[in-house]
Amino acid sequence: MFTIGQFSKITGLSIKTIRLYHEKGLLNPVEVDPATSYRYFNEHNVERARAIGHLREMQFSLAEIREILDTFSDDSELVPFLRRQKDVVGKRIADLKRVASSIDSLLASEKEALQITKGSTNRIVKKVVEDQKVACVRWNGAYKDTGRVLGQLARQIGRHIRGKPFNLYYETEYKDDGAEIESGFPVSESAVSSNVQMRILPGGLCLSLVHVGPYSELGRSYARLFQYIQTNGLKTRPPIREHYLKGPSLIFSGNPRKYLTEIQVTLDESTEDDNGNSDERQD
Fold first, then answer.
1. Which residue ranges make up each domain of the chain?
2. DSSP 230-281
3. Contacts with 115 (C-beta within 8 Å, 6 or more apart), sequence order
4. Res 281: pLDDT
5. Which spans in 118-256 are helix H?
6. Measuring CA to CA, which of 24, 57, 99, 140 is 20 to 30 A from 115?
7. Is 121 exposed, middle or buried (0-12, 13-18, 19+ CB in 10 A)?
8. Is this model's pTM higher than 0.70 or not?
9. Tell me, which fold does domain 119-282 have in CATH?
10. Which CATH class name applies to 2-71?
11. Half-sphere exposure (Cβ direction) of 53: Cα atoms closer than 13 Å
């Protein structure tokens, strides 16, 4: 017979784990000294401990392992259990992949924000944006409700999202309520939904300015854009687009002074200069 210390070395199980398995009725010593309560084990216990180890590696619970070892004696009898466990593990892997994808999205978001802050913030740039598949909802209401609408939309299409949220503003003036707004996200090409509109958001020539700071100060950036448009005699068409490059995340509300919002004003193609160059202004 083996003492608990010897048994621990033979099986690779800690003494704490051996005691736990004993308490759970999973690994009963061949003998317990009534005077000292010392546990003693034999070769049969060693074999059972190794079986427990293999089943634990396959992520079976202690209750499942006890049921398996107390009920079956041959590998062929385990087939139903193994198939069921494979399904459980497969689901767990899928869940972990979703977690990894969420982490990757946050990391990519921060990397993009860092690149933007080192680049074209607070500059007015003329650029061409590409057509993009989006999931969106068009609604009428108050501007303060855009966050709620985007949150609801994100919950509906979460795994299909492939970019930053945006709002399209169709009004030519500010409205306290009843403003015509379209809220959405870029989505994968294969995305489909019976509850959300999927469409191609047309690209084209636009003026772009990346605003750094809280949403309450967006008016200053709009003033710069409108002044630039007027000074240069440019023609525009609705809607105005706001892309939220960095803002409140799923985890933290963040520092509003570091929020990044790209404002895009669509231009008539006729406003592009003859050389196809981009206009740019630095504060």
1. 2-71, 79-116, 119-282
2. HHTT--EEEEEEEEEEE---SS----GGG-EEEEEEEE-GGGS-TT-PPPEE
3. none
4. 46
5. 146-157, 218-231
6. 99
7. middle
8. no
9. Multidrug-efflux Transporter 1 Regulator Bmrr; Chain A (3.20.80)
10. mainly alpha
11. 14
